[in-house]
Design brief:
The complex is a heterodimer of chains A (355) and B (217). By secondary structure, chain A is α/β, with parallel strands linked by helices. Chain A contains 18 helices and six strands. The termini of chain A are far apart. The chains are: A alpha/beta (355), B mainly alpha (217).
């Protein structure tokens, strides 16, 4: 071993030049491999890309492979009335668009459509799912034409639903349980309370409008948790433990606007816009698009064709009418439970244990 | 005859009945402990959350007390190889009916306790505007849950070990069949479907599921 060590050539570390050459060789090999992979991908795509079949309902043009087209047609039939009912004549704007359904777990892809702006979306090969996604896609396109300030205020798109009552029920709960005096005032019928709860017209620091000192303390406890508290321990203690409102305000100022809960959340705001469209009739959405640049509440009033306060009062009465059923016991459940009690009781009486 | 059977069953299960009665009375009081003083409207959500959290214990209590009372109702008969029952001048169904009725009568105590506890708790609590108390509905639901679970386990206890064996064997067969089918690549969910049949309306355990709210909208 000593002899081998004595005659062994000294080892060299690689020089910077050698390292650069090796990196360049690797880069060339990677580029060559990428070209081959792209060719293979496009060959595979060409193999499974098929000419699309189309289905048109109203101004909704849907494209899909032959295996999916029947469900796509049924989905378009279900989705178009919702779009037409909510957006009215403005839904005709969809005429320039092609909605291409890509069925999940399908090896085939419909070829892109020419002459229209294509929007490809994934869906299961079921009419109901295709309808839902179609309505969602189309709504995004139409809502994108609204005033950006209104879109910011809504926080999401107006998506027509076949079951609007569910939204009203959850809004009822928000109105009743949000930790804000504004929703309480709105619940009791004060229109200014509804305006404040909706932040209409939008104000720079809406939490000052929404929450009083006591409520701000609760909101701080909700918003700041875990490590966030450690970084502002003194302020947090002053706010939560000692009830110092200036500390609570400073903490809330540091939070991003999206972190502070709205008394009436985005779905409720979107619900208010949907109500304005419903009350405003078929041209309501067209008027809403034309009202760009006005204050948000003025835009809603234009769409609804009535003053914003009247709209808010109609909204309030709808929400109160949609009070969810309390979770107790419905008569149907009671009878069934009683029936099961008797059935199992009878089983025991009929047992032949002794015989 | 009924009084004698009621008395013996009371002796066998009095500890469980007393504990369940205390728990039934205490649960509603505990669930609204956050609402003893004036509740600010900003605390409504917390109050509902607390009531819902404690509400989980109602079906647990109903199941536990009904199960134990049903088992205890037949345990001495099984131990004594039904000699006492056979010595009575009664047909089998009449004896089983007496046992069932005695157990159900004893179980009325925790149900009434839930009702009284609910009334007391809601009268002491400051319920925010817009919310309502449902002590009677809650007690009725608790009573039905107790009845269903009691009837099921009473029927199981009244049967023979062989019957229980058949039942467990059938259950094992379903699970084994599903495991083999899934291993073979077929997507079969028999057990899941069976469970859903039991807990979703009109299944027998539907009464136990969902939220149990003493105070709600």
């Amino acid at each position: 071993m000593c002899t081998a060590l004595a005659f062994a050539a000294p080892l060299h570390a690689q020089s910077v030049t050698e390292l650069r050459q090796r990196v360049q060789r690797l880069e060339r090999a990677y580029a060559a491999a990428e070209v081959v992979a792209q060719k293979a991908d496009s060959a595979r795509r060409a193999l499974f890309t098929v000419p699309p079949e189309s289905a048109t309902v109203g101004n909704l043009h849907v494209f899909a492979t032959a295996a999916v087209i029947e469900n796509a047609r049924a989905g378009a039939r279900a989705g178009w009335p919702l779009l037409d009912g909510t957006f009215g004549p403005a839904a005709a704007l969809l005429d320039d668009h092609a909605f291409v359904v890509q069925a999940e777990r399908s090896g085939e892809t419909a070829r892109p459509v020419t002459g229209r702006t294509s929007h490809r979306f994934l869906a299961t090969n079921e009419a109901a799912d295709i309808a839902d996604r179609l309505v969602w896609q189309a709504s995004q396109l139409l809502v994108a034409r609204l005033d950006p300030a209104l879109r910011d205020w809504m926080g999401g798109a107006i998506v027509p639903s076949a079951q609007p009552s569910r939204l009203l029920e959850s809004t009822y709960l928000e109105l009743l349980t949000a930790p804000s005096a504004t929703t309480r005032r709105c619940f009791q019928g004060e229109v200014a309370g509804c305006r404040d709860a909706f932040d209409l017209p939008p104000a720079p620091d809406p939490y000052r409008r929404w929450y009083g000192p006591e409520e701000r303390r609760v909101i701080v406890q909700q918003v700041l948790t875990g490590n966030d508290v450690l970084s502002v321990r003194d302020l947090y203690q002053r706010c939560v433990t000692r009830g110092d409102d200036s500390a609570c305000l400073r903490l809330l100022q540091r939070q991003p606007a999206s972190a502070i809960p709205q008394p009436l959340g985005d779905p409720s705001r979107i619900g208010l816009v949907q109500l304005a469209l419903e009350l405003g009739g078929r041209d309501a959405f067209t008027r809403l698009m034309a009202a760009r640049g006005k204050a948000v509440d003025a835009q809603l009033a234009t769409a609804a064709g009535m003053p914003a306060d009247s709209l808010l009062m109609v909204w309030r009465s709808r929400v109160l009418a949609a009070r969810p059923r309390p979770v107790t016991l419905n008569p149907r459940g009671a009878w069934v439970a009683l029936m099961w009690g008797l059935v199992f009781g009878m089983l025991a009486f009929g047992s032949t244990r002794w015989r | 005859m009924f009084r004698a059977i009621l008395y013996t069953q009371w002796k066998w299960s009095r500890l469980v009945i007393l504990l369940a009665t205390l728990a039934g009375f205490g649960l509603p009081l505990l669930s609204v402990q956050g609402a003893r003083g004036p509740v600010g409207y900003w605390e409504t959500r917390q109050l509902l959350g607390a009531v819902q959290g404690w509400g989980v214990l109602y079906p647990v209590l109903a199941t536990a007390v009904a199960l134990i009372v049903a088992m205890v109702a037949w345990a001495p008969d099984h131990r004594g190889r039904h000699v006492y029952a056979l010595s009575l001048p009664l047909p089998r169904w009449h004896y089983a009916l007496l046992r069932f009725a005695a157990g159900a009568t004893l179980l009325a105590a925790p149900v009434v306790a839930v009702w009284l506890g609910g009334i007391l708790a809601t009268s002491m609590a400051a319920i925010p505007t817009g919310l309502h108390a449902y002590p009677t509905m809650l007690a009725v639901r608790f009573g039905l849950a107790v009845l269903v679970v009691y009837a099921i386990f009473f029927a199981i206890s009244a049967g023979t070990v062989r019957t229980a064996g058949y039942f467990l064997g059938a259950l094992f067969l379903v699970v084994a069949f599903e495991a083999i089918a899934n291993a073979a690549g077929a997507e079969i969910h028999l057990f899941e479907k069976m469970m859903l049949l039991l807990i979703v309306w009109p299944g027998p355990f539907d009464v136990l599921t969902g939220r149990w709210m003493l105070i709600d909208v």
